Amino acid sequence: MKNKRKVLVTGGCGFIGANFVRLLHSRYDAWRVVNLDKLTYAGNLKNLEGIEEGNTYRFIRGDICDSELVAGLFAEEHFDTVVHFAAESHVDRSITGPGAFIRTNIEGTFSLLEAARQAGFADNGQGSQPCFLHISTDEVYGSLGQSGYFTETTPYDPRSPYSASKASSDHLASAYFHTYGLPVRITNCSNNYGPYQFPEKLIPLIFNNALHNKTLPVYGDGRNIRDWLYVQDHCEALVEVLEKGRNGQCYNIGGNNEKQNLEVVTLICDLLDKKLGLAPSGQPRRSLITFVPDRLGHDRRYAIDPTKIREQLGWQPRVTFAEGMEKTVDWYLANRPWVSDIVNGSYQKYYAEMYNNILNTHIK
Ligand code: NAD
Ligand code: TYD
């Protein structure tokens, strides 16, 4: 069949990966998707509940750093497409424990690139264009002052262990294009929000705390700016890059949606007040906001210039911030057990219950 892709998705049980697998599943039901995920604390099989294993979907619990496993998968599955999400992704964790970030983000990316190269990664003869899509972040560009935007030519200036490890992986991916001709494309996206985001990140953390009448920790003066994009818009942009992008190119992805952290936090409070009534204290949930000591090396402002992807690939976001936040708060309200299972740790027991001995599969 023409245009039937064989896709290796890494990190498909995480926030963006799961939204991406769901998008492919709903739109390209003939594509075969193999999801390789280690199920770290951030991976959750419940994110893909309802997607059954079969001809079009296979789940492998494994580590991208395990080069033997990865090479075996390439040999077995004859992928023509890799979409590489797997990473340690939380800046605060990278400050307290950078080692895992160096290992997964740098060594893991190297292991995948090398497996693709060794496998002679190429067209599978079914009409689709081979592509190794490396998913990265705008944080590699560093921090902006009050003006200016990140473009694809902005020099890299990563400032946290997380962004430094992602920058390193971007450079490796780019080097594999230039040196070996591997069909690499790189995307650098701004902050995502939406369903299935692990509640250590700002938006789901504030939602959960506000729901339970807990304090809402805002770092520093709360005036740091992030450029928020609804996760489905990001996933749609990735499909455009797969379908229409060019090898060796980087694409910045963002929705021109800069917000100060305090604006985001107060919006969540106000949405919850509107939907649930005031907090049990009778106060608006904004009263729970607590300024806490700033994150070390906290980048002040991120803002993406998405001109290239809009003009060259015709992509632009479809969901406004107001709509996206309403959808997000509604999703978290409707999926409270998803959040509470994470907060109380029981989500990880689900693997064992569902997949018998899967906890030991492919993990050395
Ligand atoms: P996430 O932390 O929610 O998910 C990461 C997934 O990778 C998890 O399922 C985890 O189990 C898996 N994983 C981690 N280490 C692994 C390993 N060694 N082997 C196999 N699987 C492993 O992350 P996310 O927010 O979905 O981010 C996905 C990608 O997008 C990352 O590369 C991140 O840098 C990038 N990104 C994220 C954002 C954002 O706002 N979240 C923005 C831009 C780019
Ligand atoms: P986060 O969701 O961790 O994403 P990133 O650090 O990758 O941008 O944080 C988003 C912003 O929110 C960032 O400026 C840090 C801030 N923040 C808080 O103020 N309080 C919190 O509890 C968290 C997790 C983040």
Structural class: alpha/beta
Gap between N and C termini, in Å? Answer: 37 Å
Number of strands: 13
- What Rg, in angstroms, do the CA atoms define? 20 Å
The first-level CATH class name of the domain at 6-193 and 228-258 and 300-320: Alpha Beta
Give me the CATH fold name of the domain at 6-193 and 228-258 and 300-320. Rossmann fold
* Proportion of residues in β-strands: 15-25%
H/E series? EHEEHEHHEHEEHEEEHEEHEHHHH
- How would you write the strand order of the largest sheet? 3-2-1-4-5-6-11
What is bound: which ligands?
nicotinamide-adenine-dinucleotide, thymidine-5'-diphosphate
Work out the helix count: 12
Give the CATH architecture of the domain at 6-193 and 228-258 and 300-320: 3-Layer(aba) Sandwich
What is the 3D shape?
Answer: globular
Poorly predicted ranges: 359-364
Task: Summarize the main sheet.
Answer: 7 strands, parallel
- CATH-wise, what's the superfamily of the domain at 6-193 and 228-258 and 300-320? NAD(P)-binding Rossmann-like Domain
Nearest-integer average pLDDT: 94
What proportion of the residues is helical, as a percent range?
A: 40-55%
